[in-house]
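Example record used in the benchmark description.
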Amino acid sequence: MVSELRHRRGVTCGRSTNRGFAYLAMLFAIAVLGIGLVAASEIWATTVRREKEIELEWAGAQYVAAIGSYYYASPTGAKRYPNDLQELIEDKRYVTLRRHLRSLYPNPLTGARDWELVKASDGLIRGVRARRPSDGGEAKAFIFKPAGAV
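Model output (structure tokens):
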């Protein structure tokens, strides 16, 4: 009678007949957790990429504004572009030092100051183009266009 009662409850000789189900449930939980982490990492990577694109737009706009400020602040009647980016930080065309840009901003996509220079026909800088890491994306250009220019 006692052995019959134990058999009905799923216990035989002090052991459960449900062995392995806890292990299987744990494996299933780990698999679901792994899938969730993969989905979260994709969302995180997309968010980081978007933030870097926003930083790129901001830095590019700063360079365009600085080149425009340099162009319109030409002391003589002829407007001209800077020879290099350093002239945006230290404009020595005046008696006192004039700054059009606080510092040379790094490219947010690469983390380095590796902007490609967009030059006018006379070899002076009209803008910058962002180099992208080898992800296959095309370079984004930020070019100053004076008012009234086509």
